Amino acid sequence: MKQVLHNCGRLEVRQSPIEGYGVFAMDDISQGEVLEEVPFVLFPEYTKYGEKLMTFLKSEKLLHDKAEYLVNLRHNLKFKVPEKYYFKWSPPAPDLLGERIVFTVLPLGNGPIYNTSNTNNNASWHIDDQLFRFIADKNIKKGDEIRTFYGYFVAETGETYDVNNVFFHGLDRGKDSIVRLYNLRYAAPEHITAVQGNQEYLKLNEAIAKADDGLKIERIQSVEADGNIKYTFDFPTNWSIDFFYKKMDEFKRAKMPITQMTYTYKTGGNEEIITVSLPNR
Q1: Cα first-last separation, the chain
Q2: 169 - beta bridge partners?
Q3: d(CA 224, CA 143)
Q4: I need a labelling partner for 169 at 20 to 30 A (CA). Which of 3, 11, 47, 260 fits?
Q5: Spatial distance between the Cα atoms of 62 and 65, rounded to a whole number of angstroms
Q6: Count of CB atoms within 10 A of residue 194's CB?
Q7: For strand 145-146 and strand 21-25, is the pairing parallel, antiparallel, or unpaired?
Q8: Of 129, 130, 183, which Cα lies nearest the Cα of 153?
Q9: What angle do CA 265, 267, 271 make, to 5 degrees?
Q10: Which of 162, 23, 159 is nearest to 102 (CA)?
Q11: How far apart are CA 261 and CA 251, in angstroms?
């Protein structure tokens, strides 16, 4: 256990244009710098069941009047639900009956104060020695807000989407792997920038590394085993992120062998296009 935890000393909390409070850089921070190391709380599974039980009791009108009053009072006082501050973490452990193990965790320090933009983050995190370590993904200028990925996407409706369930199928999540999409990271303990052994993932990560400000998806296609394109969808400009992830999930459920995605991004001010074919197994 470390005796002293690192903090870069150049962070401050103030009101954010994204929502509520956010974390901002008080000075320039270089890509790769550790922003802070903080302990975290890992929630036991029964906390999920408690939430589901409350939802059931309320839907069946079985909730005691006092409990109903307290729920409404918290809402009226404009306190957000705790789930909004949770992170999702997959430990470097074998899957359970073929399903990826995912824990709900709450980092301390500035952890739950960082905002996320879903598709345009400039910081990532990983867990090492029971500590959250937040790291600058890009050069961050003085006054910039620091944004990170919570392990899932959040739509305008508040609905959440798991990055692996929607985008990646049959993915080998090795101990030393990180999956990155739209400058988002689903972090494992070792801090590398690509999924090993798959050239399409490597190609995608290279594009992300070169992009000035994230990637934008333009088109998604389902491809049959013989290479013929079965379905195509072009994303409209400024489409709701809620519909965006639902459309992605719809293509996943089409059960075609390949999901092909076309992205645009800017590097050095010039627009580039990349198409990646990801296995849909």
Answers
A1: 40
A2: 280
A3: 48
A4: 47
A5: 9
A6: 19
A7: antiparallel
A8: 183
A9: 50
A10: 162
A11: 11
Q: What's residue 240's pLDDT? A: 72
Matching residue, tokens 């999409």: 181
Considering the entire predicted model, what is its pTM? 0.66
CB count within 10 Å of CB 243 equals 14
Question: Residue 122: its pLDDT value, please?
Answer: 87
> What is the Cα–Cα distance from 36 to 33, expressed in whole angstroms?
9
* Residue listed under structure tokens 């307290």: 70
Distance of CA 101 to the CA centre of its chain: 16
- Based on its alpha-carbon atoms, the radius of gyration of the chain, rounded to whole angstroms, reads 20
User: In this prediction, what percent of the chain has a pLDDT beyond 70?
Assistant: 79
Structure tokens at 82: 């705790």
pLDDT tens track for 226-262: 888 988 999 887 777 677 777 877 787 777 888 888 9
Euclidean distance between CA atoms 26 and 24, whole angstroms: 6
- Residue 222's nearest CA partner among 212, 211, 232, 236 is 232
The amino acid occupying position 27 is D
Q: Using the 8-state DSSP alphabet, how is residue 40 labeled? A: E
State whether the Cα torsion 151-201-273-29 is positive or negative.
Answer: positive
DSSP structure class, residue 111? G
Stronger pLDDT, 196 or 116, i.e. the higher one? 116
pLDDT digits (tens, 9 = 90+) for 99-136: 667 888 999 999 999 998 766 788 988 888 789 999 99
Question: To the nearest whole number, what is the mean pLDDT of the chain?
Answer: 78
pLDDT for residue 118: 65
Give the contacts of 156 (CB within 8 A, at least 6 positions apart): 240, 241, 242
Q: Residue 7 carries which side chain, given as an amino acid letter?
A: N
d(CA 278, CA 103): 26
